């Protein structure tokens, strides 16, 4: 049994220690907002926040995040009030198929919540780690413009 | 096209006032007391239900893969029904012949469903009016509808659709129905956001990968990277030794139709995804490789060299050869590579075969084909094959094939419980139906500083035997050229091919437009002005081709084509070019009833060519949802950048080489240039927007690069 802290709750996980966090979230905990897409940490669809940093969960063994605070897309904002990044995504109607968007949002949240006053280019260079096959980038840029 | 009367009548037992479902909702009253009210649903037709609480449910037949039918189709019903878009919940229809062709294919959704959906809304509206007229004992002619109410302006009475739903749904379906005039539209043409937006940004949206059924297990399948390999024998023991692995079975090659080819392999069935993925690495499989041909790029090139020296196998357009006397002939040879689909959501499907009843759930582009095929293969009545379509993480043509659905069902039948298959990214590429590699040989005859003859020999692997889906965008060029010869010869390869956004337009429009710019510049002409000259002065042109059905008679509205071209030139500042370090490239095409033109701007910076701006102009008739159309234009540009400047698929030893995003990167946010989008304001019937903007983007970029660098571009991606 491995204990993980996800969205401020503790979970006892019955999975071997090398299991990637993504599959534990999806198959064990029914938290399906984090998506499988490349399996090699190259597209960002599976990103979650690990101690505030956006990290691809598809290659992240659960053994490596035992002491970490994990936040998934389901843990952002509250039922009454979404996270400002989610609100910006809604305002700009960003998603098309939507499959990559939870990962995009997690990356943007990791930048937003750190208050580092990054320049626009620096924000885009971090967002470059997430792929969107529908090409929603122009609207992501507009959503980011309203946030940073 | 579905017959409206049949359609509306089939929808429910006429006059029954069918209550489809009852549930309860707590509505908070002023006194902090919770009042429990019963919600009843009434069906008006297969697209529409109304509740007694004045809400509408609209059933969307076409799969949502990011192209927006759940928004646009619902808007069309609401427009005629006169109900606020916010009062509507949208549900995905299960596969049924009642809807006709439900495919997300060929950018035809709006064209196909525009009228039936308007009629669905208008019919229900008339029935609601009549119900109100009966209650008030007046004639329904003097009543009108607004915001979900029937209004009697004379007496200032009103009744909500919810109050009328019961009565109205019992009325006979009107024989004929009047539709709104486009100038009276108040919803169509307005910017509406997706009904799935909130679920998508909170992680609640359900894609195929997220669907579940009680008792389901997860399946991962080992297949050989080369399609013709067969399983000779396998040892399942080591995989079976992993706790949580329940079975290891062989999956046999099965190809009832090309678009449902189940490839041979060995499947691991396990309690969860990771166990299945882990255990499959322990399988020991001996492959029969006797039928493998070690194809590679060199072999394709040799095939081309041989074929281009021979006359085309199929002749699409043939001029009077005796009239062709040119001053000189320019020859062009192009190779446009294989492209993969790389949907963000890899293939997967959930299937259950139990007691001669099948349930299939997942992302697909063709619900009817899945239902029909499985009904035929397993000899089950259609109603025993339930196909539920979830949201799809991209499609781009890949999900028009339904191999993944058939594969999941075959496995479920064998193991006796529901299964969810999951393909890895690499498997998703290896078992893709690629856009075919194509070769093009042009011989352009020049006389009096004009193109006098145009010979274009196309070679691809055909999707269906001969030239059917392979020549559009080339054989139907509407140019004012005296002698046009178009030929087609099939390429032979074992690589599996299929539809990819805009199909043959994706390669043909590239080469055609690149030839025009190169020839124009070579003759010392302005490519834009020369293009206009090629489009002549006629209003329209009908091109007859020796192809079956609508492909044999192609209509091009030249006014609309010239209009998008001129608009793109104007918006991009074509006439004010003066930069030494920058250049513009222009291209245009028509795709079915839609017209698009693009201008790309590239600059030279630190000895590198960079794409800085794209101007995009689209005429897709009357626009239903401008946000959806813009998204398709942006997506087309993003797709185009990937295949023009970044990636492709190459074959070595019969195997695709670029399997994941490390070796096959696609467009990322920093690759996107400045965009200038323009949608032509039009009252023509709505036509497609998903594919039409794509084909002219790659040649616009290539033409800009050629203009700037003078380097001839003969393949993609452009190496700059």
From TrEMBL, chain A:
List, in alphabetical order, the Gene Ontology terms for molecular function in this entry.
2 iron, 2 sulfur cluster binding; metal ion binding; oxidoreductase activity
Q: Which Gene3D superfamilies match?
A: 3.10.20.30, [2Fe-2S]-binding domain (1.10.150.120)
Using the record's annotation, list all stretches that form the 2Fe-2S ferredoxin-type domain.
1-76
Name the CDD domains for this protein: fer2
The cross-references to Pfam families, in alphabetical order and at most eight, read:
Fer2 (PF00111), Fer2_2 (PF01799)
Top-level taxon in the UniProt lineage = Bacteria
The protein here is known as (2Fe-2S)-binding protein
UniProtKB/TrEMBL annotation, chain B:
Report the residue ranges that make up the Aldehyde oxidase/xanthine dehydrogenase a/b hammerhead domain in this protein: 202-291
Q: Enumerate the GO terms in the molecular function aspect.
A: oxidoreductase activity
Lineage: superkingdom: Bacteria
Pfam families tied to this protein: MoCoBD_1, MoCoBD_2
Which InterPro entries does UniProt cross-reference here? Ald_Oxase/Xan_DH_a/b, AldOxase/xan_DH_MoCoBD1, AldOxase/xan_DH_MoCoBD2, AldOxase/xan_DH_Mopterin-bd_sf, N-heterocyclic_Hydroxylase, OxRdtase_Mopterin-bd_su_IorB
Please report the name of this protein according to its UniProt entry.
Xanthine dehydrogenase family protein molybdopterin-binding subunit
């Amino acid at each position: 049994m491995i204990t993980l802290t996800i969205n401020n709750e503790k979970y006892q996980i019955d999975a071997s220690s090398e299991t990637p966090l993504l599959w534990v979230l999806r198959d064990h905990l029914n938290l399906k907002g984090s998506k499988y897409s490349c399996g090699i940490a190259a597209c960002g669809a599976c990103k979650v926040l690990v101690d505030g940093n956006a990290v691809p969960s598809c290659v992240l063994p659960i053994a490596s995040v035992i002491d970490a605070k994990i936040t998934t897309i389901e843990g952002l904002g509250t039922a009454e009030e979404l996270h400002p990044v989610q609100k910006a995504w809604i305002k700009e109607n960003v998603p098309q198929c939507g499959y990559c968007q939870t990962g995009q949002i997690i990356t943007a949240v990791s930048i937003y919540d750190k208050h580092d006053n990054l320049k626009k280019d620096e924000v885009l260079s971090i967002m470059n780690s997430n792929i969107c096959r529908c090409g929603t980038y122009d609207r992501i840029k507009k959503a980011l413009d309203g946030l940073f | 096209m579905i017959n409206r009367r049949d359609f509306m009548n089939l929808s429910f037992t006429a006059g029954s006032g069918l209550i489809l479902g009852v549930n309860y909702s707590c509505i908070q009253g002023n006194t902090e007391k919770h009042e429990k009210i019963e919600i009843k649903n009434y069906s008006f037709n297969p697209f529409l239900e109304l509740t007694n609480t004045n809400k509408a449910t609209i059933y969307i037949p076409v799969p949502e893969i990011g192209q927006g039918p759940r928004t646009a189709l619902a808007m069309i019903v609401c427009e005629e029904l006169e109900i606020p878009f916010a009062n509507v919940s949208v549900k995905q229809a299960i596969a049924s012949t009642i809807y006709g062709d439900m495919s997300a294919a060929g950018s035809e959704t709006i064209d196909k469903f525009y009228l039936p959906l308007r009629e669905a809304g208008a019919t229900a509206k008339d029935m609601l009016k009549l119900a109100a007229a009966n209650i008030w004992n007046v004639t329904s002619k003097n009543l009108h509808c607004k915001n979900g109410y029937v209004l009697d302006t004379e007496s200032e009475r009103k009744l909500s659709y919810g109050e009328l739903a019961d009565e109205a749904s019992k009325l006979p379906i009107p024989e004929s129905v009047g539709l709104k005039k486009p100038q009276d539209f108040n919803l169509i043409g307005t910017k509406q956001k997706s009904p799935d937006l909130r679920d998508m940004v909170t992680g609640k949206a359900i894609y195929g990968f997220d669907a579940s059924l009680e008792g389901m297990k997860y399946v991962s399948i080992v297949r050989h990277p080369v399609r013709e390999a067969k399983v000779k024998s396998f040892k399942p023991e080591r995989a079976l030794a992993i706790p949580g692995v329940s079975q290891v079975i062989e999956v046999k090659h099965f190809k009832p139709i090309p678009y449902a080819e189940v490839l041979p392999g060995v499947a691991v069935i396990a309690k969860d995804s990771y166990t299945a993925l882990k255990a499959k690495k322990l399988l020991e499989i001996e492959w029969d490789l006797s039928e493998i041909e070690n194809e590679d790029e060199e072999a394709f090139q040799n095939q081309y060299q041989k074929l281009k020296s021979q006359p085309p196998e199929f002749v699409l357009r043939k001029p009077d050869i005796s009239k062709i006397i040119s001053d000189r002939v320019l020859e062009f040879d192009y190779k446009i590579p294989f492209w993969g689909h790389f949907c963000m959501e890899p293939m997967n499907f959930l299937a259950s075969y139990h007691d001669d009843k099948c349930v299939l759930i997942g992302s697909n582009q063709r619900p009817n084909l899945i239902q029909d095929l499985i009904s035929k293969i397993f000899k089950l009545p259609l109603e025993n094959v339930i196909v539920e379509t979830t949201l799809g993480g991209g499609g781009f043509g890949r999900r028009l094939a339904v191999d993944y659905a058939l594969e999941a069902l075959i496995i479920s039948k064998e193991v006796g419980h529901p299964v969810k298959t999951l393909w890895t990214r690499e498997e998703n590429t290896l078992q893709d139906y690629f856009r075919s590699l194509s070769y093009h040989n042009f011989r352009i005859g020049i006389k009096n500083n004009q193109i006098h003859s145009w010979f274009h020999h196309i070679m691809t692997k055909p999707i269906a035997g001969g030239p059917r889906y392979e020549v559009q965008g080339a054989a139907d060029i509407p140019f004012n050229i005296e002698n046009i010869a178009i030929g087609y010869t099939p390429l032979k390869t074992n690589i599996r091919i299929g539809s990819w956004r805009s199909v043959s337009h994706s390669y043909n429009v590239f080469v055609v437009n690149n030839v025009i710019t190169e020839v124009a510049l070579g003759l010392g002409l302005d490519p834009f002005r020369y293009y206009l000259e090629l489009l002549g002065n006629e209003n329209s042109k009908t091109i007859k081709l020796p192809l079956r059905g609508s492909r044999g008679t192609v209509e091009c509205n030249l006014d609309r084509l010239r209009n998008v071209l001129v608009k793109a030139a104007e918006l991009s500042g074509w006439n004010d070019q003066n930069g030494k370090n920058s250049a513009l490239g222009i291209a245009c095409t028509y795709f079915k009833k839609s017209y698009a033109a693009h201008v790309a701007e590239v600059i030279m910076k630190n000895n590198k060519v960079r794409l800085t701006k794209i101007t995009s102009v689209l005429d897709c008739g009357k626009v239903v949802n401008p946000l959806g159309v813009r998204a398709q234009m942006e997506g087309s540009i993003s797709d185009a950048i990937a295949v023009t400047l970044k990636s492709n698929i190459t074959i070595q030893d019969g195997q695709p080489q670029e399997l994941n995003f490390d070796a096959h990167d696609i467009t990322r946010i920093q690759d996107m240039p400045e965009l200038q989008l323009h949608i032509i304001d039009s009252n023509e019937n709505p036509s497609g927007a998903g594919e039409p903007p794509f084909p002219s983007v790659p040649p616009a970029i290539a033409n800009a690069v050629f203009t700037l660098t003078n380097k001839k571009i003969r393949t993609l991606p452009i190496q700059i």
